[in-house]
Amino acid sequence: MTRPAQRSGGARASADRLARLLNLVPYLLARPGIELSEAAADLGVTERQLREDLELLWVCGLPGYGPGDLIDMAFDGDRVTITYDAGIDRPLRLTPDEALALVVALRMLAETPGMANRDAIERALAKIENAAGELADAPVAVRMPGDSDRVEALRGAVQRRRALRITYYTATRDETTERTIDPIRVLMVGGLAYVEAWCRRAESVRMFRADRIDALVELDEPAVAPPQARLHDLSGGIFQPSAELPLVTLRVGRGGRWITEYYPCERVEPGDEVAGADGAGREWLVSLRVTDLDWARRFVLGLGPDVTVVSPPELAEEVRDQAAAALDAYATLPAGTGPAPVGALPGAPPVVVGPASGSPSARNADPAAATGSH
């Protein structure tokens, strides 16, 4: 399995190479017959890397990719000249939809808490809005996910360097606690706002999701993280599974397959073909790591009949026992009262209700919940 850090490094390298290739054609068009060594020095790459880039450019071009559509070049010893640029020197023309998409994306970036280089974003936004004309005034409202007032309060505490007293819901243990924290920074990860802070209760750095902070009070004391406080490396995301965490294997049907896209899974393997109400389908064996089996128990119970626990055995036993307790509670209801919500029954888990696609509740079940990082 590829580690997140490796994937992240590969993505950065690919992005760097794409930017270099996009700059390479206009650079060479302006300098016909330039020596490869001089071009490599200007572009900050080795001559070998430049030759590899040129070989890749040779098979790039307009859709159709026939000989007359590809970028072409001529070599004279160690000198290179672009002889056909496949239209890459044409000015960029944005369609109305493309321009509006860029405006919306830049407005969202400008509203992102803790975003660096905000001046550069606003300058780029102003240029695109000016080029888009009346289109930029389309009635599009941009709001960041979660409670924007809460995020602004967190940002203010970070800027003023003030400690906070918060009431926080911890999804991994399904409990609400009071904590005093020393906020360090506010950031967006996966479309969600977090405050990273020194938690005086845990005596370590923790990540707190903004929409799980039920209440906060800014204290009249400075936020002072101790010298041993270390910020998390989030290049691979909030949840970075390791071999030390418990491995949970589930058998999921068609209705539960969405978890393979929403949660970081270690293995996804096809299982047996099964018949269902909507026709034949395939089961899947899904393995993922969690830090807390109590969270896994609530997660599985919320998924209902689309999921069966394969391992570990203790998780399967806990799910079976709590499901049986919920059924027993239904059986003992007084006559005429009707069924009560599952979350109101003694010993029953809270129901995880999501949109029609089957995705989980945003508050109770998310990839970061499995980490126990807060």
Automatic annotation (TrEMBL):
Stretch list, region Disordered: 338-374
Pfam families with a match to the protein in the record: HTH_PafC, WCX, WYL
Domain spans labelled WCX: 247-327
All residue ranges annotated as the PafC HTH domain in the record: 16-129
Biased composition annotated in UniProt, kind: Low complexity: 338-362
Residue ranges occupied by any WYL domain in the UniProt entry: 151-216
InterPro entries xref list: CBASS_pafABC_assoc_protein, PafC-like, PafC_HTH, WCX_dom, WYL_dom
PANTHER family: PROTEIN PAFC, PTHR34580
Protein name: Helix-turn-helix transcriptional regulator
Organism of derivation: Plantactinospora solaniradicis
